[in-house]
Amino acid sequence: MENLKDKIAVVFAASGEIAAAVARAFALHGARVYVTAKNLEKVSALANDINASGGWAEAGMVDAMDETHIDSYLQQVVAANGRLDMVFNGIGSYYKDAGSGTPTTVATFEQFLHPLQKICGSQFLTSRVAARYMMQTKSEGTLLLLSASMAKTKTPNMAGFAAACAAIEGLTRVMAAEFGQYGIKSICICSGALLETKKIQGMIHDFAALAGVSTAQMSTRYTHFDILKTTPTLKQLGETAAFLVGENGVLFNSHIVDVDCGKLNVL
Prior knowledge:
Blueprint: E1 8-12, H1 17-28, E2 32-37, H2 40-52, E3 56-61, H3 67-81, E4 86-89, H4 109-137, E5 142-148, H5 159-179, E6 185-191, H6 198-211, H7 215-223, H8 234-245, E7 256-259
Parallel strand pairs: 1-2, 1-4, 2-3, 4-5, 5-6, 6-7
Helix pairs in contact: 1-8, 3-4, 4-5, 6-7
């Protein structure tokens, strides 16, 4: 189980459900995990849960949109451990801020740019700063990014979010090409809708109200194109992340790894 034993991991935006699941999986497999977010109280609770379960975690307050803040924190982690083996950034965006659900002809330019600046921009910042420290310490680590299946589906009224997800996947491939000479991998997890999360449940509730249908009817729209009669879970996504940053995950580099159990409408 401890295929990440003594590895050093930093998880950004760990106040979110996806990043928290990844942090728990890293710790379960033996990594020393630094969980960070702007909400220190929330990541402190996560760190306490991980430590109580026999793992190792430490909480820190980091704004994943502030490069100076990111650099200062990673510098401290490297100074304490001499290396940096993997980073994961689970930053998300409230769908209304991103203009999701709004027709492209109605969404403002600011709404369109919001997910590009926040989601893709943050992935760019945390990944490139982490890469610098991996190069300096010759850590040969993994940059693990996050996108959503919206990058590869034909879904209306999601222009900004879909563009941001596609941009993150392009960034993943570029960084793999740049940093591979230093033994650094760049991989992107592309997540399908995780129905157990508060964010997806909130969207289902709101979109159902707008469409004048029940939440149950709206929920079926998220599973209509499922190949299997199952949907991905947070735990499964976390375990996938732990595999990708482990020794056997070297098979994946520059790849976009779909975590959706198979979808008929995903390219």
